[in-house]
Amino acid sequence: MDQVTLLQVMPADAPGDVRLRSDDQEVIRRELLWIGVRFGRWHAAHRLPADADDAAITRAYRCHIDHVRAESGYRAVEIARLPQGPDGPAPAGHGPSPAGPDQPFCEDCSGEHLHEEDLVRFVVAGSACFFLHVSGAVHAVLCTAGDLLSVPGRTAHWFDAGADPRYTAVRFRQDAGGGGTRSLPNGLAARFPGFDALAASR
After folding, report:
1. Is the distance from CB of 133 to CB of 141 less than 8 angstroms?
2. CATH number, domain at 82?
């Protein structure tokens, strides 16, 4: 069965207490806006084959990518895939690859952490879950193909694509040199249901 987007909200100190669970896109958009997070949907200019390469993805979403860059000033854009290819993520034709091995992306960090700059992802294919820790609650956003998520910098979060990840995304960076990442070694992520549990409960 195809995945659909899901939002599940839980208190940070009570992972088993589900305060909100919805797959209604308008509910998801509204609830995330309350915490300063933007959620939207994109549509490709033309149908993409399952094996579309990075150039084809960039062409299909060119007008959306250009709009986001112009609106928010992101200097670097690249295509990220899990499982990752042998050469790592590839630039999407809008500047250099933004991060070196000492500047991990959200997708590289399974524990709670934060970035100095915004976290902006458009999911091209597959699915993954972004866990946003804001105002004493954890907002688990299970994103699927077509979803755009824009999270303000310095928002504590973690990422999970499951034991068998299938995830392709366009990711945007403000700093082509890579922004700072700070780990929060509090063990919070381990206390919450992960991607596989959330996906299986649908």
Report:
1. no
2. 2.60.120.10
